[in-house]
Amino acid sequence: MSKKFHKHLRSQVNEHKEIQEVFDQFMAQHQRNSQVKKENGLVVFHNDKLLRISRPTISKHFHPSRTLMLQANIKRPHQIKKRSSKKKRGDKANVNSGNHIKKIKPPKPTIPSTQSQQNFNTDYLSDYSINTKKAVLHLQNRAREIFAAHKNHPLYQNKSFQRYFLNMISAIVERIEQAKHFLSERPISCVIVSTTHSYINRILAVVAATKGIPSICMQHGIIASEFGYIPKIATVDAVYGNYEVKWYNQLGVPRSAIEIIGHPRFDQAFERPTTKRSQFNRRLGLNNNKRTLLIVIRNNEDINRWRKLIQTIKKLNLNIIIKNYPSKNPHQLTKEFSFVQSTADYSIYDIFPHVDAVVSYASTVGLEAALTNKPVFILNRDFGGYSGYYQAMGQLVQKDPKRLGELIIKYFTDPEFKAYVFRKRNKFLRIAYPDMSHSGQRLKRSIARLTRK
To answer: What residues contact residue 203 under an 8 Å CB cut-off, 6+ apart?
Structure first.
């Protein structure tokens, strides 16, 4: 954070486009001039935690004989921890209802379990390892020489940075060799990754490029800030809508390298719910005669502002439920306010059909709620690199929780303002997610275009 740090930098970035230009030059050095199009080859999905494409969705659009799931490591039997037979406190979801705790059964999911679908073949990068000790040691010694040559550098002399850097050399060299062998031994036509901000995904995209194999990087969440999305490395970045096309273009990414594909997980927004609202309300202890507001909170971040929002809207005769993300435990505010309930272990797509409005921090949940035809309010805050993603929603995005609470009250009491809310939501969707057709099918078409001879 020191203002003097710039004195240690060789290069000065004057325009954002310069960053992408550097990586474009890097990719040009590793890009095979002509793509080896294997139309009948395997489509590889790197199945990390950010891919978020369920196996039922993949099986709906891709044939098992031409689809391969890739994971970084395989869990050998000795690596799998045995689950204790003793039940831990909190294993079952509970709902506060007055002064007693009631046990509740797990909900029936709207989308079928991924385990119930046909199995795809799975490969593991760790099974393609070779001995890299000599190469790693050579690079680590070179790094130590660089550290030693910059004795007054504030970053290079940081011991934690040095340890991390040396460890990453080992991890990266190993993954490069694994990716090279995997992509050489398998007839791969296209590689799908969740984000090239992950070094393993970045390696897969770069090594694929050296072999002329196209890659598609899915958009793993809204671009609330540029962190995690720049630079663009894959052949094509699959984005949600026009907002990202314009954003990437301003940062120097050509239109030909961006495709509006959306994300297959959002296809759930158009599925019919399997439970009725009365069942949902009964399970969470909600009043059938009241409308329901969903609040999405990220752990205890900004808890004082969320507390103030609830205090502002408590005069409304609403059911208020809180989805605590990413935790599965009831949020602290459900204990502070007796009229606020937890969403238990319901997924957001099981919740959306049964609520009347959604308020969230600036996260992907806001977009997902809008796709399910719900009015959306955003409790925003300043953070580095904010992209203004929800700007098209106008005054429905507020930093002041009291002001946002007043607008929520107005939505439930003023028909004219209610109409304004839906107009703003529809305007936002035209920018953020203009194509409501199934994303899984659009992804399939994009792969076919990239791999067709």
So the answer is: 172, 175, 176, 179
